[in-house]
Each structure stands twice: as C-alpha cells, then as structure tokens.
Write a structure and sequence with these properties.
The complex is a heterodimer of chains A (about 350) and B (about 300).
Chain A (H helix, E strand, L loop, with lengths): L1 E7 L7 H23 L4 H13 L2 H25 L8 H18 L5 H30 L3 H21 L24 E3 L2 E2 L1 H18 L1 H11 L1 H6 L4 H27 L11 H11 L4 H20 L8 H22 E7 L8
Antiparallel strand pairs in A: 1-4, 2-3
Chain B lengths: L1 H26 L7 H19 L2 H25 L4 H19 L26 H5 L4 H19 L1 H11 L1 H6 L4 H27 L11 H11 L4 H18 L11 H4 L2 H16 L21
Helix pairs in contact in B: 1-6, 1-9, 1-10, 1-11, 2-3, 2-4, 2-9, 2-10, 3-4, 3-9, 6-7, 7-9, 10-11, 10-13
The chains are: A mainly alpha (about 350), B mainly alpha (about 300).
Chain lengths: ~350, ~300
C-alpha cells in the first residue's frame, strides 16, 4: 500500500503565484458553469454578461474600479499587518468605524468648502479605523492578546455602533421613522474621475503604491519582515517588537478606515449598516491571494471588483447573485490548492510510514 | 419573565451546538472561522430536505451531514494542504453563505415541510417555571445538552479525547505517541461542522422555522466568541451560551419590560465580554498556563517536524 505525501520542492516554482491564481480562477469558472447549468442558465451567456458589465466598456470599468477601491484598501490593510505575521480580521469593522468618522465630519461640516470637508472626512475616517484597531493593538503588543479574535469581535461591535447611530441620534427626521441617516450633502461627495469612477480610485492607488514602496524599499519595511519572520532575530537586531506591533496594527486599521471614508463619500448616499458589504472579509482573501504584497493586492482587488460587479449585473438575467459570492471563495480555494503545489510536490510513499524520518 | 428564560435556553442551545463544534475543532488545533457558513449550509439543507421528505429527523441528519462536509473542506485545505486556517475559515464562511443562498433561492418564504416539535414531557411540562423553561423545548435543546456531556466525557475521560487534546497542544508529541494528527484533526473539524449543521437545522426546523438569506445573522461569530468566553470547556461554554442566549432574548423584550436601554447596544455585549475575557486570560496566563490549545492555528506537517 502506498500513500501520497507532500514534499517541499527545493525551489518554489517560478511564477507560481500568478499561475496558482489563474488555476483558482479556472476552477471557480468551471464550478460556476455547473452551478449555472444547475439553475437552468446558459453559462456562456452569463459569463459574457458578467464580463461586459464589469470590463466591457469605460463605464463598466469605472464601476469596477470604484468597487476595487474598498477591496484593495481592505486587502492592503490585511497585507500591512500580514507582512509582520499579524492577522487583522477586523477590516470589516474598521471600514465601518472609518465611515462613522467621515459621516460625523460631514454632519458638522455641512457648509464648509468641499475640499475642506472631504479632506477632514477622510482624515477622520483614517482616525476612526485606527482607533478601532488601537485596542487590539495595545492588547497584542502589551499583553500578547491574540489579535485575530479581538479584531474579529470588534467587527460586530462597529456594525452595531452604526445601527445604534442610525436608529437614534443620527436618524433623519424626514425619513418617516425609517432608521436612515440623512443623505450626504453635495460638498461631502468625492469629485468624479470619469464615467462613474470617483477620485477615490486615485487616492487608493496612491496609498497602495506608497505602501508597496515602503514595504520593499525602506528600512521600515525590512524591519517589518524581519519582525514577522522571527521575533528573536528582531529583538537581537534592536527592533522594538512592541512598538512595531502597535504601529502596524493601528496603521492597518487606519487604511481600512480610509476605505470606509472613501466608500461613504464616493459611492454611498449615506452611512448604512451595510456600507461595508463584506469588503473587510473579501480583503482577507485578496491579501492572501496577493501573498501579502501591495502590488498583488491591487491586481487581485481589480479582479474581485470585476467578479462582484459582474455578479450584480447577472441578477437581471434571473441568476442569483450568490453565484458571484461562491466564485470569489472558489478562486481562493483553487489558488490555495495550486499554491501548495507550486511549493510542494506529491510523492507516493510506500506503506506504513509511522515514525519514518525523511 | 418565563418567556424570557424559555427564549434564553432556546437561543442559548443553538449557540451551544455551534460553539461545541468549534471547541472540538480548536481542541484538536484547528481554528475554524467558517462557523457562520457551516450553520448556513446546515440550515438550508435541513429546510430543503424537510420540504422534500416531510420528515424533520431525516432533515436533521442531512443538515448534520452537510455541515460536516463543509467542515471537511476546511479540513482538507488546512490539514491536508497546510493552508492558513484564518484565510481558509473565512473563505468557508463566504463560500457557505453563498452556496446556502444559491441552494435555498427557491425556498425563500415557503412554509416549512416539517418541524421538530417540542418534546412532550407529560406532567413535567406543568411544573411552574421549570416546566415551560426546561420541559417544553425543541428536541435539539436536549440534544445540545447531551452533546455537551458527550463532548466533555470523550475529551477528558477517554484515550481518544487525550489524543485529540494532544493534537491541539503539541502535534509532534501526539504524532510521536503514534496518533495520526491529520486523521484526528480532520475528524474533529468534521464533527465540529456536523454540530454547526445541527445548529443550522435548529434554526430552520424549530426556531424560525423558515429559510431566508441572512438567517444565520452573526450567530456563527457568537459561537466563535463563546469558545473563548467559556475557556475551551464544555461546562463554562454552556454557562456562556445561556448568558449570550439571554442577551439575544432580552434584545426583543427590553421595551416590554419598560427598560430604556438600546437593544442594539445590548447586542454588543457578547463580543465586548469576549474581548474582556480574552484580555483577562492573557494577563493571567503570564504565570499560569493559558486554557487555549497551544498548537491552535498551527499547521502540522510531519515531514517538516
């Protein structure tokens, strides 16, 4: 009897991650065909419609780019923490906290000039996201509290905070008793770029590039990677782990908060409890697919934006939007499997290998 | 008041089933953040099978199987392929919620085919207070209690349980002792998924009983929180489940009691409490061992030990 085992390759396959990503996409599309046939739709026509609606013309691109913004920034937030071996699972809540900060500025700055109010909104958004991450950051840096769970728990708290605000003191008096915040005034909206795209696309791209450069070209980025790979080495090199953990997690929260501010000011009419529509969680998948690298984050976010926008468009054909949700998870599952195969090869080994040393 | 307690037990049992499952997986070293997705798959499968067969017990079994299968997916990626548990688990949540919405798209708003009716305990049900609170519940409430005892017994009183805990504390030690770490972890994740599936069935066969997208409504995250709140022990998790169940039950009843406190703020309580407990655990574990399984979240590849 023989059984398969995974043996680490001496060298990681070149181009492994883009290849793995492609395989993941292929797996997702094939399973998608099964789902679509299962619900009585023509898969080719559905995919064609998805492509057209997301990447078919400038207008489609503009919508997809808008969607890629929160996905990319959430992905970046996860990647920033991830480059140091930390997990920020709280982007979902930090996006909400950022939106709360931005919405608060928009409320008090109703008659300020537009550039002032928008700048203040985005600054408040960064602050809001950073503030929500501050607790988990201190707890992790000072007493070693697992940041996975604390950031995860605060998601639920932040979403309820928004609910509480829009059910209470932020409720629009003209909303006929619906729990709705008032619409943003015009001066609080991000200017347009082309078609439906807003300048948030540029802002997000700049932030991602900045972090990309900081991560790969600066001593700060280098120290992060050292600290992430070995705490002992970092201490030996004189890097203060406590301080690094604190700044990285707060920064990560700030980036996610920034996404919330842009999402509110750019694409949403008002703050709602659904403002971060799973962006924070999708951001974790984006970052994982990008292997925690900022450059990869941008590319993957664009593709996920296209899948999401395409997924919305096929609802008019009677296709459940859940198909696009499933596709996103399947891309990751496929890529995980393929990614493993770029680092390991499968070997058949004989019989009972209990205790065998290889 | 009796209604409140009855609802606390009822909501608490649902959380308990899912939290027990998560606890078993974590005890074996696997963090599964896919609970929300597994509950959703159990819920929709239970509902769909009840519609087809009209038999709630068959539906329950199907829901457990569905949860276990989805759980095994997480097992495949994290145990067999050694993928990051956080990433795989969260993807499982997204995948499970998506697939459940897809499977259940024709069932939204339909009346249920069969329900698990409350157990008739005869005269016990007539006892004041205890009767309605303890003896008029869905069969799944009693199953949850039994599952709790069985989990405690197996984990702490059998050799199998010792092996499971060893896999979660120190995988290489478990391996050296001749246990299959991969086998144990896969089985634990599958059992955990099955319990989450049962929690889902409870939702659509007993509690609501209907299927709608978003029906799980964050209960999976509460279950994850409960495991920590209960410090990885079935008894303490049960206490936590009742407490969190009480906050869920209070949410809709605050106003009827004339209490002027926002039910939304109240619903933050489980999460805030869990963060608090986690901080306390961390402070205390400076001079005594943490209750968290030491190898939790760490992939084990025997070839690289």
């Amino acid at each position: 009897m023989s059984r398969p085992v995974l043996v680490r390759r001496e060298q990681v396959l070149r181009g492994g991650q883009p290849l793995a990503f492609g395989i993941g996409l292929a797996v997702a599309l094939v399973v998608g065909v099964l789902l679509l046939v299962g619900s009585g739709h023509d898969p080719l026509r559905v995919y064609e419609r998805m492509f057209e609606a997301s990447l078919g013309d400038p207008r489609a691109w503009s919508v997809t780019l808008n969607r890629a913004v929160p996905l990319g920034l959430a992905g970046l937030a996860v990647a920033v923490a991830g480059s140091m071996g930390l997990w920020n699972i709280g982007a979902e809540g930090q996006i909400m906290a950022g939106a709360i900060g931005a919405a608060w500025v928009a409320r008090i700055g109703g008659d300020w000039p537009s550039p002032v109010v928008i700048t203040a909104m985005l600054a408040a958004a960064i602050l809001g996201g950073g503030l929500l991450a501050l607790g988990p950051a201190i707890a992790r840096a000072r007493i070693g509290v697992n940041e996975i769970i604390t950031t995860l728990m605060l998601n639920e708290v932040a979403i309820r905070l928004v609910q509480w605000l829009i059910h209470g003191r932020w409720k629009d008096p003209d909303s006929h008793n619906f729990p709705l915040a008032p619409m943003l005034s015009d001066n609080a909206r991000l200017p347009g770029l082309f078609e439906r795209a807003h300048v948030g696309v540029v802002l997000a791209a700049v932030v991602i590039v900045l972090f990309g450069v900081a991560a790969s070209r600066t001593a700060w980025g280098y120290e992060l990677r050292v600290a992430g790979s070995s705490g002992a080495t970092a201490r030996y090199a004189g890097i203060s782990l406590e301080r690094k953990i604190l700044t990285v997690l707060v920064l990560s929260g700030g980036v996610a908060g920034f996404a919330g501010g842009i999402e509110l000011s750019g694409t949403s009419d008002r703050i709602t409890e659904n403002l971060s529509n799973g962006f924070g969680f999708a951001g974790i998948i984006v970052a994982a697919l990008a292997l925690m690298r900022p450059s990869g984050v941008a590319a993957v976010a664009l593709l996920f934006g296209a899948v999401q926008i395409g997924g919305q468009s096929i609802q008019t054909m009677g296709v459940s939007s859940s198909v696009s949700t499933i596709l996103q998870a399947l891309i990751l599952f496929g890529a995980i499997a393929a990614g493993v195969l770029s680092r390991y090869r499968v070997e058949m080994v004989a019989g009972d290998t209990t205790g065998a040393i290889r | 008041m009796i209604g409140l307690l009855e609802a606390s037990v009822s909501f608490g049992a649902l959380l308990y089933l899912a939290a027990l499952g998560e606890m078993i997986a974590e005890k074996a070293g696997i963090l599964n953040l896919g609970v929300e997705g597994m509950i959703a798959m159990g819920a929709v499968t239970g509902f769909a099978v009840a519609l087809q067969t009209g038999n709630p017990w068959v539906a329950l079994v199907a829901a457990v199987a569905a949860g276990a299968l989805v759980g095994l997916l997480h097992g495949f990626f994290t145990v067999v392929l050694g993928a990051e548990q956080v990433v795989s688990g969260l993807s499982l949540t997204i995948f499970g919620l998506g697939l459940a919405a897809y499977v259940g798209r024709g069932s939204v708003g339909r009346p249920s085919g069969a329900e698990l009716v409350p157990v008739d305990w005869g005269p016990l049900t007539d006892i004041p207070w205890a009767g309605p609170v303890l003896f008029a519940q869905s069969p799944l409430v009693y199953l949850a209690v039994i599952a709790g005892f069985v989990t405690w017994f197996v984990l702490w009183r059998t050799r199998l349980g010792l092996a499971v805990r060893a896999a979660g504390e120190s995988a290489s030690t478990a391996d050296a002792a001749g246990h299959s770490v991969a086998g144990i972890r896969l089985a634990a994740v599958a059992v955990g998924g099955g319990l989450a599936g049962a929690a889902g069935a409870y939702l659509t066969l007993s509690l609501t009983p209907q299927w709608a997208e978003g029906i799980v409504a964050g209960r999976g995250w509460i279950a994850v929180a409960l495991v920590i709140f209960g410090a990885w022990h079935p008894g303490r998790v049960a206490v936590g489940a009742l407490l969190f169940g009480l906050t869920l039950a209070l949410k809709t009843r605050l106003q009827t009691f004339g209490v002027d406190f926002s039910p939304i703020l109240l619903s933050m309580l489980p999460y805030v409490l869990t963060v608090g407990v986690l901080v306390v655990i961390s402070i205390r574990s400076r001079n005594r061992p943490s209750p968290a399984p030491a190898a939790l979240g760490i992939a084990y590849r025997r070839e690289e030990r």
